[in-house]
């Protein structure tokens, strides 16, 4: 779909089906794939920047990548120029294609390495990160058995840790117990 050749009914469908009101829109994240390489554009509506995040910057490809960003920015201009996208009819639409292009310094991957989308968000994947993700998945409101898991974890702690401490026992050796915190 090209901004120059858009179909009004298609744009109406996209706005109605996938977009809330744009008045309070702060950022739009747009991943790109070009020549077996991923990069990311963040449209910062507050600071009026098009942020270009690329973990494998190439002087040969830079302009083509920025050109692609501008094509999408012009398409966003078309989508957001429709006043039905706004809750308040006094809102003045911003011209995203006129935003400044900002290229923050981010670490670069080796030229012969495989793309790693995690690099964009600056997460180092280690045991601590894995544990944080696991805890978020288990404890999150989206998990229907979150309360049950928490109750079993407390019982496990009480049974295996606090009782040993109260009896004056020294620290327990770490063992692989067949009864984990989720066991009945």
From TrEMBL:
One of its GO terms (biological process) is proteolysis. Keywords: Hydrolase, Protease. It holds the Pfam family Peptidase_C48. InterPro entries: Papain-like_cys_pep_sf, Peptidase_C48_C. The keyword Hydrolase applies. GO terms for molecular function: cysteine-type peptidase activity. It comes from the Eukaryota. The keyword Hydrolase applies. Belongs to the peptidase C48 family. This is Ubiquitin-like protease family profile domain-containing protein. The lineage of its organism: Eukaryota, Viridiplantae, Streptophyta, Embryophyta, Tracheophyta.
